[in-house]
């Protein structure tokens, strides 16, 4: 805002706005709430916007309240005609009108969209960048069978970033790999509701469910003989797949389940396909192995 020709009061208002809004908006998303003491709707909305912006502070959101009676010049520059009027400002420019948001859910939806589109600097982003390589390390350890080390790494990450769903999932899956299923379930049950809905947590839940069903079999020769004697004995092949998966041979387990689908996809209400999908979710839908197995499944289903 240019200050040429302004009164001392207006110049002071512009300078305060520059310090409170413009400068912080270089790296943060600044929510500017235009209000007045006499405005009933402003007072009703105040607890909502203050609560949400406080929750989003670590995401790079800052709330600045501008009293239009005390800062009429600033309000006129934003063409404020009614209040409450709420703008989101980034890098000195209004990027969104948030005035239509009247509930926590609506305001959070607006902010989430903006934070996903703009290069906002925040404590959360900095922490996510810091823990990302640690999560990758933990996943590698888990894949290599170093379950105790993976648990140690994921537990440290959870302590650093309690809201990181990937870390919570890794911790639970490491516990599953160590046979501590009750502990894994307890860890997931303690998660906040918004974290518990994350896809990574679904992966951990699938791993727990799969482990609950698993029964390691020392000798699969009898069931292998049944399958060899009658390739259409799908119950025996399904039992073989369960034993193979329990023994850690997921390739052979997937092959057995795919063979059931190929021979009779409707067998036992699609149990083989359902079991495959459970395995896919437990391993991770983005895993290259899962992608390869899903292609095989698609070829069978659509051939």
Q: What would you note in describing this structure?
A:
By secondary structure, this protein is an alpha+beta fold. It is built from 15 helices and four strands. Strands 2-1-3-4 form a four-stranded mixed beta sheet, sandwiched between helices. A hairpin with a 2-residue loop joins β3 (85-90) and β4 (93-97). α6 (147-160) runs antiparallel to α7 (165-177), α11 (221-229) packs antiparallel against α12 and α13 (250-263) runs parallel beside α15. The longest helix has 21 residues, at 123-143. The radius of gyration is 28 Å and the shape is elongated. The model has no long low-confidence stretch (mean pLDDT 92).
Strand order of the largest sheet: 2-1-3-4
- Overall structural class, as computed from helix and strand content, comes to alpha+beta
| Gyration radius, in Å | 28 Å
Beta strand % = 5-15%
Describe the protein's topology.
Blueprint: H1 8-22, E1 29-35, H2 40-55, E2 61-67, H3 72-77, E3 85-90, E4 93-97, H4 104-117, H5 123-143, H6 147-160, H7 165-177, H8 181-189, H9 193-196, H10 199-213, H11 221-229, H12 234-246, H13 250-263, H14 271-283, H15 288-301
Parallel strand pairs: 1-2
Antiparallel strand pairs: 1-3, 3-4
Kindly list the characteristics that best describe this protein.
303 residues; alpha+beta; four-stranded mixed β-sheet; 4 strands; 63% helix; 8% strand; elongated
Summarize the structure.
The protein is an alpha+beta fold. It has 15 helices and 4 strands.
């Amino acid at each position: 805002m240019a200050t040429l020709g302004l009164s001392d009061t207006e110049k002071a208002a512009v300078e305060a706005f520059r310090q409170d809004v413009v400068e912080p908006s270089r790296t943060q998303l600044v929510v500017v709430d235009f209000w007045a003491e006499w405005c009933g709707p402003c007072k009703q909305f105040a607890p909502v916007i203050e609560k949400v912006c406080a929750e989003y502070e670590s995401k790079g959101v800052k709330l600045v309240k501008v009293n239009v009676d005390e800062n009429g010049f600033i309000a006129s520059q934003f063409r404020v005609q009614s209040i409450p009027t709420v703008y989101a400002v980034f890098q000195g420019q209004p990027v969104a009108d948030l005035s239509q948001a009247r509930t926590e859910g609506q305001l959070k939806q607006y902010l989430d969209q903006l934070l996903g589109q703009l290069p906002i600097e925040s404590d959360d982003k900095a922490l996510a960048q810091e823990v990302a390589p640690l999560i990758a390390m933990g996943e590698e350890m888990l894949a290599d069978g170093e379950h105790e080390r993976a648990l140690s790494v994921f537990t440290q990450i959870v302590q650093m970033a309690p809201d990181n769903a990937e870390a919570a999932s890794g911790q639970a899956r490491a516990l599953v790999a160590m046979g501590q299923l009750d502990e894994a379930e307890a860890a997931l049950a303690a998660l906040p509701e918004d974290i518990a809905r994350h896809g990574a947590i679904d992966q951990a839940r699938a791993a727990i469910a799969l482990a609950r069903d698993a029964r390691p079999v020392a000798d699969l020769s009898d069931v292998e003989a049944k399958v060899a004697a009658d390739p259409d004995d799908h119950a025996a092949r399904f039992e073989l797949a369960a034993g193979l998966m329990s023994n850690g041979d997921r390739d052979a387990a997937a092959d057995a389940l795919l063979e059931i689908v190929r021979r009779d996809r409707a067998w036992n209400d699609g149990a083989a396909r359902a079991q495959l999908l459970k395995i896919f979710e437990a391993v991770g839908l983005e895993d290259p192995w899962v992608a390869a197995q899903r292609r095989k499944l698609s070829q069978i289903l659509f051939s």
